[in-house]
Amino acid sequence: MVDPVLASRLQFALTTIVHIIFPVMSMGLAPFLIYFTWKEIRTKQPVYEQLRRFWTRIFAVSFVVGTVTGLVLEFEFGTNFAAFSTTAGELFGGPLALEGMMAFMLEATFLGIFVFGRDRVSDRLYFLSSIAVGLGTWLSAVWILIANSWMQTPRGFEIAVENGQRIVKLTDPLAAYLNPRFPYMFIHMQNAAVESVALFMAGVAAYYVFRHHVWGYPIEHIDFWEKSLKIALVVLLITAPLQVIQGDEYARHVSETQPQKFAAMEAVWETDSYVPEYIVAFPANVNDLLNPRTKELFGIGIPGGASWLASGGNPQATIRGLESFSTKSPPVAIVFWAFRIMVALGFWFILLAVWGGYRWWRGELFEDDLLHKALMASSLLGFVAVEVGWIVTEVGRQPWVIQGVMKTSASVSPNLTGAEATFTLLGFVTGYIMLLSLYTYVVGRIIRAGPPSKDELTQSDTVHVRESEVTSGD
Amino acid sequence: MTNVGSLATKPLFGLPLAELWFALLFFIFGMFLFLDGFDFGVGVLFATRTDDHEKEQLLAAVGPFWDGNEVWLVVFGGALFAAFPSVYANLFSRYYLLMFAILAALGLRGLAPEMYEEREDDRWRTLWGYSFVIGSTVTPFLLGLFVMNWLIGATGLITPVGVLGGLTVLVLTVVDGAAFLGLKTRGALRDDMRNRGVRAAVGYLGGVIITLGSIYVTEPALRSSFRSPLIVALVILTATLIGIYVVALRRNRYYAAFAATAALVFGLVALVATLLFPYVDRTAGLTIRDAIISTLPLNLMSIMTSVLLPIVLMYFVVLYSAFSGPIDTEETYR
């Protein structure tokens, strides 16, 4: 029997970790789909119709699973975090309601037209539908990230006590909703989504390009995959450097607004100047290996690096240590390592983009098998980077659910029993393993089947997975 | 500090915003129950089909619509959270396991149409057919259970009134789905759906009367609400609409039948809202005025919603007109 507070936190962690995959897929695919639709209508080239139809299938599956898992999150604020919902509802409920009304409605209705309506509506309405779907996914992110960034840097409210409960009262809507963290978070997240999908697209396309050009298996739609690879590389060349540059500014903003989180990211225990930036660090004591709050560290670092990052160029700058805060530290090892994995991946993606761009420029894009293998191996790493990034954000703000206002331990439903919480937690663990397997299996089938063949195009929007192309029984 | 002026102190145009939001919540729930209701009904009726081509038609009928329809539930949750956060917190944590059961059932229903089309072999399709039927049957039943529990202020998960309400809502979705399929299908399939719709309509009338009776008998606290002339009017309206629905189906007037269904759903929602008023959470003893958020956020939400809801309704007009008329039998799900 797990304690209801711990079970609720684990359950929320699990349900968000799984859910974020699907919005990243939708938000990242949206700009690609708008581009494919526009080119299809303007150029009438079959390859763009193939691109639109193939990637729309993946979008549609992701959307369905995202809907199923997203509704869970909305409900969980009430089921598991009733105390938080009562306290913060006046500020936090509005953005969630507006996300449904303004964004999700737009996406869900026009996706119906976008997926099923190619033959039923005019080109113009069809193209508008692709924009509506994309706009819907991005507006969802606006409202959800407004809600989350307010928890990180709460503004525009005062605390009142009603019926013995502390209630957050909205006093300044603009300050609350356009809080300092929001722009950093929004740019970082949306760029991450596009970058992750570009990596995914490049990895899938590289697999086919590799088989065709390097191994010499004839692939029916090789022009389609070559085009996919090039488009993905262009997008990767733009998004990868932007992500690291903007991430650096974001981290500085965290050091100013959430110093305790920043200290955990850098594992700084004592307030100090000239703090090194550890590339890796391990507990000095073997006994502490499993203790996420261990203090004695042994690592390899760049002298003054962390100070230099936090201050934007001064290696002598002081960083507040975790010991200087009155609240308990977050689990430092988790935050520290998640941050390092994210940053390392960010640089790796830049390297990949430059490597691919160079090969393309030399005209060797389809010959370099090592590049193909690197792209294949990296196809899911964008999603990994998103996950560890959110772990830095959400674990790093502990013990606070609303920074400086409400503790996570006080936010759980008061009447929730350990039995109930444990039961649903186990249900989610089994259910979500099945759901993820199913999603992976279906997306895998779509990828193996490839795009619709050219003779199938523009007759109708029916895509039949030809059984002959798919090895059955896997 | 931005100047929020009188928005922070006075309700917009002096309107009774708390009561309006109470009404709006039930309107949103009604939209969900009417629109997603026919998807559920089609899912229940799916169980009566053995022919593969007919099954395809049923899935194709709801294909473009169901996800947009389900968003009304998302908006209902968000609006309840935004306007009555303490009620949202109380209800969802009080009926904890019920909420997750609803989510699981909705998940089965949502995955099914998408997955069904992914493979063509029998085992796979049987599996997702079951998923579609079970999800579409269990979801409306549990939603009815949830709403009735909310209405009577039940502390437990399963109550006699809740179970009766759940069954009533389930039958109502069949009434809804049959009328919708009357618009979407032709021939022998439509005739069969029509007959099932007529039977479901008679069952629904019985369900409403039995459920109301059981509330009157078991919940003394609600008896005074029954004296409201509105309740009597709504019951008479429901009976009249059932009559209209049956006659319309018999004469193959499917638009009329579908419109009658919409009115039936909103009639049921109005019944629940009238019986609950002025409470919004009977268990916690919270009236609408107790639970509503403060004036400033309420005004802002009211402004935003009055702009957005008409636009949202327009999306649905565009979607439904793009896919109006019967299913092209050549047109499969994707």
From TrEMBL, chain A:
- Grouped into one coarse class, the protein's main location is membrane
Q: Name one Pfam family in it.
A: Cyt_bd_oxida_I
Which molecular-function annotation in GO is an example for this chain?
electron transfer activity
Q: Where in the cell is it found?
A: Cell membrane
The cellular component terms of Gene Ontology attached to this UniProt record, alphabetical and capped at eight, are: cytochrome complex; plasma membrane
- Membrane spanning segments where? 12-34, 54-73, 93-116, 125-146, 192-210, 231-247, 334-358, 370-392, 423-444
Q: Which GO terms describe its biological process?
A: aerobic electron transport chain
Stretches the record annotates as Disordered = 455-474
Protein name (Swiss-Prot/TrEMBL): Cytochrome ubiquinol oxidase subunit I
Which organism is this entry from?
A: Salinigranum rubrum
TrEMBL record, chain B:
Q: Name where it mostly resides.
A: membrane
Q: Which NCBIfam families match?
A: cydB
- Tell me if Transmembrane is a UniProt keyword of this record: yes
Q: What organism does the UniProt record list as the source?
A: Salinigranum rubrum
Entry annotated with the keyword Membrane: yes
Name of protein: Cytochrome d ubiquinol oxidase subunit II
InterPro entries named among the record's database cross-references: Cyt-d_oxidase_su2
Q: Which GO terms describe its cellular component?
A: cytochrome complex; plasma membrane
Q: Which residues cross the membrane?
A: 20-48, 69-89, 132-152, 158-181, 201-218, 230-248, 255-280, 300-323
- Subcellular location(s) of the protein: Cell membrane
Membrane topology type: Multi-pass membrane protein
Could you state a single Gene Ontology molecular function term?
Answer: electron transfer activity
**Keyword terms of this UniProt record:** Cell membrane, Membrane, Plasmid, Transmembrane, Transmembrane helix
